[in-house]
Amino acid sequence: MIIRDLSCGYPRARVIEGLSLPPLPPGSITTILGPNAAGKTSLLKAIAGQIETEGRIMLGDEDLTRLTAAARSGRVGYMPQTAIGRIGLTVLDCVMTALARTGDAPLDQRAMQVLDRFGVADLANRPMRVLSGGQRQAVSLAVAVARNPVILLLDEPTSALDLARRHLILGHIRALADEGHIVLLVLHDLAFAAQWSDRIAVLGRGRLEAFGTPEDVLTPEILRRVWRIDARVERCSRGSLQIITDGAML
Ligand SMILES: Nc1ncnc2c1ncn2[C@@H]1O[C@H](COP(=O)(O)OP(=O)(O)OP(=O)(O)O)[C@@H](O)[C@H]1O
């Protein structure tokens, strides 16, 4: 996927102006980092076709911005920051609704396979409204992935999960990338981003502040400039980056 000169926003607020990114290849995880209100969610919504957008979003020869909503939703799976809304439905209904547009049959078997993949098959017949925040987040991920879209946009997919489940779900997300999906994540946890991302795009006030590997991007200079925090960055013995601020490990 190639994003060129993308501008987007809301009726009274332009959020991103003329953003271009290096190509995001199949098989990769790119994480968007940045302070609150930098425009991370807006960028995902623009790619998903949910807000007013100018510029080009190329997938091969296709410009996503020129596709119909139905064609675009076959190529892009979007997991929103707040868990999916269809709160009156059961978990299984939610996934089947997402699958219904594909015409794949039998839907219930496919839906159960997807739920099983993310470890929530036992929740299939429970109403969404009774789920815990973490359970709802795992189901939201299953819904985004259900139709097997090539692009996966996942907005803070682990924010409600305990530490073990965070690693579990990020492992699933890595497996999805290994299967050839183009994964775009929004995370706030810099250490998780360092551990799980191939590339990181840093946004600040709707502009690209940095793009590169975790080592390129998570530097004291960029942390100071974009997040306004003083930090040291160290590589621990097992290779992962540690970001140390005020003596606290992030
Ligand atoms: N529906 C909306 N209408 C008008 N302005 C909006 C709307 N949604 C978001 N914004 C504004 O767009 C800007 C970017 O918001 P966005 O949600 O993209 O930021 P973010 O980087 O994802 O933030 P956070 O880390 O806090 O989730 C903010 O100033 C926000 O107030």
From TrEMBL:
Signal peptide: none
InterPro entries, sorted: AAA+_ATPase (IPR003593), ABC_transporter-like_ATP-bd (IPR003439), ABC_transporter-like_CS (IPR017871), P-loop_NTPase (IPR027417)
Residue ranges of coiled coil: none
GO molecular function: ATP binding; ATP hydrolysis activity
Keywords annotated in UniProt: ATP-binding, Nucleotide-binding, Translocase, Transport
A Pfam family hit: ABC_tran
Domain ABC transporter residues, every copy: 1-230
Annotated transmembrane regions: none
Domain of life per record: Bacteria
Function: Part of the ABC transporter complex HmuTUV involved in hemin import. Responsible for energy coupling to the transport system.
Protein name as catalogued: ABC transporter ATP-binding protein
Organism: Paracoccus caeni
